[in-house]
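re: ur question from earlier - yeah i can do the single chain one, its not a big deal. heres the input i used so u can compare w yours
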Amino acid sequence: MANQRGKHMLHRNGVIQKGFILLFMLLFFAHYITSSSSSTLAIQHKDSHLMKETIYQWWKDQSPSMEEIGINRANPQRTGYYDEQALRAEPDLLWSKNYGIMLETGLVLGKSMIYTVLARRQLLGIDIETGEIRWERYLLRHLKDSPIYANEVIYIAGGDQHLISALDANTGDMLWEFSPPEHDFNICTGIGYHQGIVYGSSSYGVFYALDASSGKVLWFTQLEGTLISPAFLNQQIVIASEEGSLYLLNASNGLIQWKTTLDHTPARIPALSHDTIYLNTKEGTVYALSLDKGEICWSYKTESSSSTSLALTDQWVIVATCCGVYALDRLSGKVQWKNLSSDAFIIDPIIAQDTIYVHTNATKLEKAYLIALDLPTGSELWRKTLEGKYGKYDPFWTSPVIKDKTIVLISFFGDIFVLK
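and the output i got, formated as tokens:
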């Protein structure tokens, strides 16, 4: 009898517990529906532009490829397209300063500093607002590529008796160094960064992938020739050699997916977009190749030689040559417009929104200019004279950089200009 009463009590307690759980679930579900309905109604009354901005910001925060980096040609895809507000009106000169020696590499921007290397093997961290040198570090060897900024770390292609070095971006202190085993005085011919991995190629054609936080070797692969800096798209790496070879590598293990050889010499770093490789050559021929097989989709021969990188958008391929600027359709390679002039447009173009920025080289002109062109039409918006150590005759050999409504550029003779 006692056992029956116990079982009855246990059964009743179990029913009560289940009832409480069911009641709690119903209340929670009702609250969720009410909150969701309220949120939906609130969102429906917001401006659609703000909704797009919110979605984009969320995606930007979640995407590992959108971490804050400063790299030659704007991003790991090397498109030369800056996700920044364009300066459609002529900017004012915030400051300019000569740092006393010729340029060795291009510049990159961090949160509040400019990083560049001068020909006396001097790596500088410069305050972007004042031009004051925050720190400097003298290197044992010349660099072959621009520094890379990522997550408050500066990565350089060699500089001492090492292939790749990592330094604290705020102080210049050395964090780690990597020397390959095959030779003590190996030279890094190109450097890249993508999703927490830093890449470098040795003068012996070995391509390395290193953990960016420690410098530990993840993998390496043997390629051929003098390798140029790599470009990245998703989990694939494209790297070209000065001898005309083009490789596609698997980013997870370095395995070669395919190799092709071009009839012309690559001018600069390939640019990647929409599963297509875009490459300029010194002979003035622009190529578009499929990413999956390396087959030529189209090619276009400009009217002069070129030694510049390309700039890409969803619609356009922008080419700067000795005789002017071309806009090609990204899908077909057909010319959309030309801006041909006596100006020597031989510097890598960059793009922000609907505006192209190019330098002119003062070796063929009385003056050196920074010129802004309208992307849809090619018409000139403004040109600004830049006077450095040698007045208006100071040549520019690297592309400008744009960030937070500020354009930063450096001349061959070590003059930095900050426009805002």
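Residues 247 and 259 are 5 Å apart (CA to CA). not sure if urs matches, ping me
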